[in-house]
Structures are given as structure tokens and as C-alpha cells.
Amino acid sequence: MIRRAIPVVALYLIMAAAVCGLASMAACHDGRRNDTLHAALVTVNGVRDKLVAFDGEHQDQIILRAQRAGKTRAEVKAEIADYRDARAPVEAALVAVYQFIAAAATADDDLSLRAAIRSVGELSEAVTNFIKLMRGGS
Questions:
Q1: The model's pTM
Q2: For residues 40 and 107, what is the distance between their CA atoms, to the nearest angstrom?
Q3: Which three-class secondary structure state does DSSP give residue 26?
Q4: CA-wise closest residue to 51 among 6, 92, 15, 17
Q5: DSSP state of 31
Q6: Which of 18, 66, 106, 135 could lock onto 76 through a cystine, CB 3.0 to 4.6 A?
């Protein structure tokens, strides 16, 4: 299940990198600011949707594997808690990117646009680290 979800998330990360490149251009052209923010929002929504789907599937798999292995309820809860701890930086990055995009949409300055684009890059980094962690365990 993990292998299926990871390429899709990677695709969205590539799209996020494209948004970052577009945003660099948009900072120079005020007419493209809204298009850039819209593209960033669509990309981030896509990443979020894929991660939500992966998340539910992955937690179900943790439970099924634990049940097959005869683990106790406490052991299952501990495994899920470990997974959620690993997922926490991605959740924080998603919250931040939405806040920065909203701020950039309401402000009309380069600083807010740069902050929004930087937050997309930080989300990309958080997801990349999460994917590496998922490939290595849990």
C-alpha cells in the first residue's frame, strides 16, 4: 500500500517545485500573483488529499498487521502513536502553508508571496522526510 501512495505524493512534490519556480517569476510580474497563489493552493490541496488517503490506509494496515501478529491493544496504540508522531511535521507544514497562502492572498506585497512559496518548499521537505521514514519502517 505504501509503495502505491508514495509515487503519487512524489508527483505532487514535483508539481510543488514547479509552483515554486512559477512563483519566482510571478514575484516579478504582479499580474501573475493570483495565478501563482491559485496554483500553489491547488498543488497543496492535491498533496493534502493524497496524504489523507495514504494516512487512513496506512493506519488500517498498522492495525491489520498488529492483529495478525497477535499484538495487544496497547501495542497497537503505541504503533499508531509512533506513526502519528512521524506524521506530525507534515501536518504542521500543511497548516503553515495554508496560513501563508491566505496571508499572501490578502496582502499585496512580495514578502508575503515569498513566505507562501517558502512554506510550499518546507511542506515539500516535510513530505520528503516523511516518505523516507515510511520507506524505512512503520
A1: 0.77
A2: 16
A3: helix
A4: 6
A5: G
A6: 66
